[in-house]
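Margin note: ligand = iron/sulfur cluster.
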Amino acid sequence: MASPMWFEIFRQLFDRPFTNPFPVKYAPKNMHAVAKAIEEGKVRINPPVPVPDNFRGKIEYDREACIGCRMCIKVCPANAIEFVPPPDGGPKGGKVKFYMSRCTFCELCTEICPKHCIRMSTEFLMADTNKYSDNLVITDSGRFAEQPPPQAPPKPASPPDAGQQPASGE
Ligand code: SF4
Ligand code: SF4
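Resulting structure:
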């Protein structure tokens, strides 16, 4: 006798996978070769799925608006924020910097900041071989007032033809 479990198994056979293969639709033998091919325009990336509202991605920091109060440092559970003293060594004018390699994306720093100069972007491409690279240490993202708020990337207009296996078979 057919049980609900069998119906569920049968249904799932025809479900689309939730995982979005990225950056290409196949499992490459050599990721470096694929990255180079993407750079040279020989392979197009399989676009990432749109991120949901309130996605907590890479931190953005309005350094100029920061008053150096250190509240963000106090609440950070991952010790991912470092105080940068002012050049003159005085009591005022300090700033902070963020180490994304330690960040747990909890958003506590953005909530506590009295100047609203920290926010979470929709950027999630942070793979890097150097955790101290400019990509992963955030020191200044520019003035927020001069930039539009972070937005989720739009859905692709047409079905992506990206990520096909390159002719070279890389
Ligand atoms: S999001 Fe959380 S872990 Fe990351 S820097 Fe802010 S407080 Fe620290
Ligand atoms: S909480 Fe905001 S204003 Fe205070 S040090 Fe951190 S980033 Fe600067």
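Residues 4-13 form the longest helix (10 residues).
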